[in-house]
Amino acid sequence: MALQQITLHVNGEDHNLTVRSADTLLFVLREKLGLTGSKPGCLNGDCGACTVNVDGWPMKSCLMLAIEAVGKQVTTIEGLHNTPIQQAFVEEFAFQCGYCTPGFIMNCHSLIEQHPDADGQTIKEWLESNICRCTSYIEIEKAVKSVLRKD
Amino acid sequence: MLPFDFDYYRPETLQEAVELYQKQAGQGKQVIFFSGGTELITLGRIDLAYVDAVIDIKGIAECKIIKSEGSQLLLGSALSLTQIEEANPFPLLTKVASEVADHTARGKITLGGNICAQIFYREAVLPFLLADSQLMIVGPEGIKTVQIHEIFQGQLQLKRGEMLVQTATDRRFIEAPFYAVKRRQQWDTGYPLITLAALKIGQEIRVAISGLCPFPFRSAELEAHLNRWGQAAESRIAGALSVLPKPILDDVEGSAEYRIFVLRNLLYDALSVLEGSRV
Ligand SMILES: Cc1cc2nc3c(=O)[nH]c(=O)nc-3n(C[C@H](O)[C@H](O)[C@H](O)COP(=O)(O)OP(=O)(O)OC[C@H]3O[C@@H](n4cnc5c(N)ncnc54)[C@H](O)[C@@H]3O)c2cc1C
Ligand code: FES
Ligand code: FES
User: Fold this and answer.
1) Cβ distance of B8 and A58 shorter than 8 Å
2) Does the A79-150 domain belong in CATH 1.10.340.30?
3) Is the pLDDT of residue B219 over 60?
4) Which residue has the higher pLDDT, B230 or A80?
5) pLDDT above 80 (res B187)
6) Where is the FAD-binding PCMH-type domain (chain B) (predicted)?
7) pLDDT for A135
8) Fold classified for B7-56
C-alpha cells in the first residue's frame, strides 16, 4: 500500500503509474511524467511556483499527494497552448527570469476560468498566492487585467 | 515528496473510516485522519511529522456537506476553505477563512483540518466559538453531537480514533452583525499576528481571538467587561485586557506588549463597528 498503481489524468491524457503514497503531485509530474513546467520552489506551499490547475481550480502541486489527484483533471502549463493569458504575458513582458511564470499563468488561467469578471480585489487576492523574485508584479497584473477585459 | 512511506486509505463512509483507524492503531501503527493534508505534507518533509498510515476523509459525503437543516447550517469538516468562501453560507466564517494562508492554499486547507491543526492560529474555529455551534464527532463509540465549548479548550479535545464530521450553527448567529480582522506583522501577506472575530447577538458583544495566546479562545470574563454598557469604551477595554488568558505569545512575530497594543486597537474597532449597529 505504500506503493500504488494509479491513473492520473493530466493535460487530457490518462497515465498509468506506480507511485509512492508519499509522492507529491509536483514530484510525479516532474520526475515520472517529465512535465518540468511546474517548478519546485519552497516545497512548502508558500511561493506558488508549482501551481497547476485541478478540476478548474488552482492547486499548489507541492501541497497535494499524487494519489489525491486520482479521478481529477490536472492541467499543467504544458497543457495550455497559445491561450490569451500566455499571449498577454508575452505582450506585457510579465516576466524576467521566468521561474515563477508557469505558476502565475496557471493561477491566472484558473481565475479567468472561475471568475471571468473578477474585480481588482479578487485579482489581488488570487495573485497573492504567487511570489515573483524579480518583481514583475505590475506587468503580471496588467497581463491578467487585459485578458479579463477582453472577456 | 515525503521522506518516509505510509499507507493511504480513502474510505467512503464514517464507519469505514473509524474501523480503518482502529485496525491500524491496533497494529501499533501511527495513523492520522488526513483532510487537506497540508500539515503532514509540510511538516513531514522536514521530519517534524511521521505516520505509518493516513485515512483521507475527503471521500466521505457527511464531511463534504453544505446544507441548511431546520434552523441550522451544517458544514462538513472536509470542505476546503475556498469551497466555503465561494458558497458563502456563513459570512463571518468566509471573512475569517479568507485570511488563512493564501487563496490557492485555501483550495487545499480544509475547515476540519484547520480547526484540528497543530499550528496555534486555527482561525477557522473562531466563528464557531462565537456562535455556540454544535460539533458532530464520530469515533469508536459511534456518533455524538457536542456543544463546542464542552470540547474545545484551546484545542479540540478528541479521543484517539475520533474525528470531527460537521459543525452545526444556528441561523440567528449566521445573520448577526459581525466584525473580523486579521492583523499581520508586515504587508498584507506577512505572517499573522492576531485575528479578532466579534459578533453581536441582541445587546451582547462576543469576541474570539487567535494569535494572542498559543491557542484560540473566547472568554466569558473578557466579554463581561466589554458588555458593561454604562461605562466608557476605554474602561471596558481596560477591564477586558486585565483578564486575558495566559500566556501571551512573545516571539519574533511580535512581543507580548505589542500584541496587547494591537488587540486594544482591534477591540476599539470592534466596539465602534458593532455598537454603531446597535438597535
Ligand atoms: C502556505 C500555508 C499557509 C498557512 N497559513 C496558515 C494560517 O494563516 N493560519 C493557520 O491556522 N494555519 C496556516 N497554515 C497551516 C495550515 O492551516 C494547517 O496546516 C491547516 O489548517 C491544516 O488544514 P488541512 O485541511 O490541510 O489539515 P490536515 O493537514 O489534513 O490536518 C491537520 C491536523 O488535523 C487532523 N485532522 C484533520 N481533519 C480532522 C478531522 N476532521 N477530525 C479530526 N482530526 C482531523 C489531522 O490528523 C492533522 O493532525 C498554513 C499552511 C500552509 C501550507
Ligand atoms: S513549491 Fe509549491 S508553493 Fe512553493
Ligand atoms: S520572473 Fe523571475 S521570479 Fe518571477
Assistant:
1) no
2) no
3) yes
4) A80
5) no
6) 1-212
7) 82
8) 3.30.43
The interaxial angle of helices A101-114 and A84-91, nearest 10 deg, is 130
Q: Which three cell numbers, joined as nine digits, stand for B163?
A: 474525528
**Minimum distance, in Å, between the CA of residue A22 and any CA atom of chain B:** 5
Q: For residue B60, what are the CA distances in angstroms to B30, B69, B82, B112, B156?
A: 22, 19, 18, 13, 21
* Residue range A3-41+52-76, CATH number: 3.10.20.30
As a CATH number, domain B61-174 is 3.30.465.10
d(CA B8, CA A2): 7
pLDDT at B279: 36
The distance of Cα B189 from the centroid of its chain, to the nearest Å, equals 20
> What does CATH list as the number for B178-274?
3.30.390.50
In chain A, domain spans: 3-41+52-76, 79-150
**pLDDT tens profile A34-81:** 999 999 999 999 999 999 999 999 999 999 999 999 999 999 999 999
Whether the per-residue pLDDT at B191 is higher than 90: the answer is no
Q: Which atom of ligand 1 is found nearest the CA of B35?
A: 30
Residues of chain B with CATH 3.30.390.50: 178-274
Question: CATH 3.30.43.10 spans which residues of chain B?
Answer: 7-56
B102 vs A contacts (CB less than 8 Å): 48, 128-129
- Provide CB contacts within 8 A for A33, sequence distance 6+: A8, A10, A15, A17
